[in-house]
């Protein structure tokens, strides 16, 4: 680094001479040249008033930002200038070599700023190239830094607490290697919405709005032009079909067979021909029915058959958006299997919690198929100039309902806006879009409208076939409710509803697609016995030693997961119920335990995801972060320790078992005051059986004295339950760390309880909770104060802040 390189003039003032110079003198050289050009083109010269009274069009100067003149002089001295990310070197070269007026291979934002420069600066033919480049760059920086400074001033502190894949870096100028000045986020500018200039434009906008309105209406009334029903929608059983017969290339079909996808499932039979034909589609099918392959196979078919062969240098051709990091990895695993045969197609994955610079390097080398979470993808679209997505041909929104639930709608809109801008530069905006979901969501239509063209709806059953199914399966309650809905108070019969599709949410009608082989039960557990009931239930599932058994336990908050994980096994197996090998005391649970929730580091999350996926026997305690889409092989039991927020969430949770025709069992714990929730679930077509708690407590270990004693006649005086509860309470009262975890878990449980939707508030209301009994279920002797912050959350927040800390010098 040269010493002079560091001596850049950061003066906040313009040089005195230039500031004092009269406006007329400062502009005259450029204006005279412009006038000469205008005259050559036959335009009149600008009037004197226009010329000399117009204020200079320089952007406001920002403190700490080197002035244009300083940068130009600096550049002429031969020092390096760092290009802002928004204008990549390739883009600059392309822009330089394109004829004036031609559409440049740059984003709308970059074009704007360069066109703005074109209007202001002399033509390259007339002047020194170096000065021009320096001026052009400094103008872009000046403008970006001014806007960034304004944005930072108005940015609330809460921006640091944004969702897991959100990026935040302060827009401070910083000095990098060799004294190069960089503005990390200087290019994060939003293109302002332009008002319609002409009548034609206004009319076009009105037409567009009207079309969107029509489309929205079609979605909300469920009138699709094209609709394919899928019954049955799971298993590979009934129809003799081959992947090749569905339109996939012979080589791909053979490859699928080699990697153990021998025959297509029902949803694949329905979706693959539609997608191979190039149509957009919305796909709804039960959990575990093979939706991932249903879109990946036609996508790979399309990409591998492109002639000439696609190369990674052309950038991204297909994009899969998923809601969670684990799902990213899972979809990528299937993709990698498919791409194994087509070495020229490169797949990759980007998601929150990973190093941005590694991801940038991968994107720079080129990725043909990208699997991503929305937050991180938007970050790269805005900040990674080398991310080429101009030729995008496929966009898939997997687990679309979850994307909506997690509030990604706005981010997805921004993503599509940016993708549209980029495709428009190539003049080709045609893109095939697929939207997949296992349950219905009232805002799916809006998501579909973002970029779909006349989509085929696959698996959205109409009311008649749903009614037939229900009748055949004896779901009289659900059928009654559905008929009431269908009549809607009018005398008109079902002919009106023929072909109509319900997209108004699972809870509104009989839409829950739960694999029929799944056995579902609920258990009424009083608050005081919840902890021992959990221990007993897990022991019951793991009853046969050595037999493969995988249990997923769902809880309502990260703190609850942390507490129960620590209690049942503890870090390194030292929890009060982890047993003591030295004393010959066996652990309460004869299986390893993992935890998975959003406040863990990415490493721990990935390790839990991979290890639990691979194990034959184990327990995963998790929040709803694992409820959607995750395909852990051979999960045998689902235990919903805390009830789900909504019936649709129930479907996703239980969908982690009984996949691909395998057997599975699901248990739901309910407080006696929550028993009404069973009715809400049954109204969606779910069939539940009640189990009694007392026999389940029978699975708890008893001491020899207890064995010889009287049999327990009630859950309150069950000797095994009493021992476990006392052991836990002693541990919590003596161990400060465990006590903190228990108090945090108690608070977060009560808070989570109050977030149930209004429609279920009559069942789940905090007023109905007995706080003393609830404290007992967290092994606390009395209810702690509701004031206090969660330690787990604080740690996660600190980690996130440290990650996003602006990197200075
Ligand atoms: N044609 C096939 N033959 C055999 N196995 C298949 C086939 N298609 C998918 N599978 C397997 O079925 C399992 C479930 O598939 P997938 O995860 O795609 O289901 P899904 O419908 O996306 O479920 P969810 O709604 O829970 O996300 C996976 O283990 C997958 O490997």
TrEMBL record:
It catalyses: ATP + H2O = ADP + phosphate + H(+). Pfam families: CTE_SPB4, DEAD, Helicase_C. Residues 34-43, 187-197, 796-809 have a biased composition (Basic residues). Residues 22-33, 142-153, 496-505 have a biased composition (Basic and acidic residues). Keywords: ATP-binding, Helicase, Hydrolase, Nucleotide-binding, RNA-binding. Its EC number is 3.6.4.13. RNA helicase. This is ATP-dependent RNA helicase. It comes from Symbiochloris irregularis. The lineage of its organism: Eukaryota, Viridiplantae, Chlorophyta, core chlorophytes, Trebouxiophyceae.
